[in-house]
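Page 47, continued from p. 46.
Same chain as before, 374 aa.
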Amino acid sequence: MYLLNLRNACIFAIAVLFVSCKEEKTPLIIPTTYDGANFDANVSDESSLRTQLSALSSYMKRAENVLNKLEADSLTKYYANNGTPSLKSITATSYSNNIENSYFPTMVTCSQNVYDVALGAVALNGGVYGARLLDKRGKETLQEVEKGLYEAALYNHLVTLSQGTITTATVDKMIRIYGAHANFPNTNTVANTSTPDAFIALYTARRDKNDGTGFYTKIRDQFIKLQAAVKAGSEYNDERNEAIASIKLLIEKSIMATVINYSYAAIPKFTSGTPTASSNASAIHDISESIGFIHGFKAIPAAHRKISDAQIDELLGLFYAPSNADASVYKFVTNPVTETTRISDVITKIQSIYGFTNAELIDFKTNWISAQGR
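Result:
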């Protein structure tokens, strides 16, 4: 009996040891650089989508010259019929409906008109003001299309890719639609790189001090981790999912840091002693880009963003650009001293949502690509 018990105890100990060894996993080995050997071959669709958005933006900006009329058919062509896949096909349905049923018709109506923002609530039509195409309540709808598509189309595509079967080619595609290249140059200066950053990656690079701790660098490192986890196999799915979650949050935070940057820039333009049409239009442009950046996130499923619908609506309301009603952005021009406090409130609320420090807010004021000449 003693020998039998001893034998059973030994078998049990060996089984425990075997299970323990089996459960132990070798830590993921993460290289220092991204493997871009097949990058260009893998990202043809994403490169085409980027080209389509650039072409749409270029066409819309023609209307910043009062001599040019936008055509509805042309807007539709650039958005929906200019490639396969099309820009429309990767855009979240709710935002696509806004673009086709509201933003495009508004821009067509406003183009080739002259607009006076001082008319405020009594303006009958929008038009060109200070070289910007504004709607009749002073919002630059063009930016709600272009910058809104950064999230509702480009980021939405990245999210969609991250939810399917993920291969190394998928990771390449995510990087390309984000706006970067496999060598992650952290600049859009063509004199310094043959693969300049664009779209979301460009704004992320502008918010990065290039000291190894910024948004762009952290996103690059998470893409390197993601590629390593995918290469290592399903045993490292936890690491894969951690990298994806970090990439999404870092992208969101970098875009909201850019909203803070534009908000800081707009306030003195509105409140200077003798604002001109040019300075007012520049300030409206700043907050209209911010409106687009914020509004585009509302098209993304809540599981893939930190900011809530209620917080998005609050921020848009502070900018006088509610998602479900006419804007009244003109108030920042007609009553600047009082109304620009709302822009300061936007900064405060974004800081609270994302836990940005006061030191980070100061850093966000700077375009670090320009400041560092990189």
